[in-house]
Design a protein that fits this description.
By secondary structure, this protein is α+β, with helices and mostly antiparallel strands. 24% of the residues lie in helices and 49% in strands. Strands 1, 2, 3, 4, 5, 6 and 7 form a 7-stranded mixed β-sheet that branches. It is globular. 27% of the residues are buried.
Length: 144
């Protein structure tokens, strides 16, 4: 009989503001064919905010300050014979330092993209919705 388990991850939208536009960092996986937000497992005893900042740093080389929670997305997937119900907390993270360096063995590429381009590129609708929230914040002049 197949079993199911629950998994928790955290990550987010790391951004930087330039004159007249905002950029976000995306990672590529699946041989460079899938673009998305950096995220990963929340470790025991770790807050979702701390996990988000750590995973973004590990996957992209970028450090940032967690500004606010954006969304919790959830989905099911299969891992061997188990069904996994995954929850991912996504945060808005303001870039503070670091150079883009994709995590070896985990990430195929990591790049800064103009927010409009990121919205077109990202592979999953739920992540596109989160980027749409960031775009709304930009239009409201709520990003610094």
């Amino acid at each position: 009989m197949p079993t199911h388990r629950t998994a928790y991850s955290a990550g987010g939208v790391i951004y930087r503001v330039a004159i007249g536009y905002v950029e976000v960092a995306l990672i590529a996986t699946d041989g460079g064919g899938r673009w998305g937000l950096p995220k990963g497992h929340v470790q025991r005893g770790e807050t979702a905010e701390a996990a988000a900042a750590r995973e973004i740093a590990e996957e992209t080389g970028l450090e940032g300050e967690v500004i606010r929670h954006l969304a919790t997305i959830e989905y099911w997937f299969r891992a061997n014979s188990a069904r996994v119900h995954k929850y991912v907390d996504l945060f808005l993270v303001r870039y503070t330092s670091g150079e883009l360096i994709p995590q070896e063995g985990e990430v195929d590429d990591a790049r800064w993209f103009d927010l409009d381009e990121a919205l077109r590129l990202v592979s999953f609708q739920r992540e596109r919705d989160v980027l749409g929230q960031v775009q709304d914040l930009w239009k409201e002049s709520a990003l610094q």
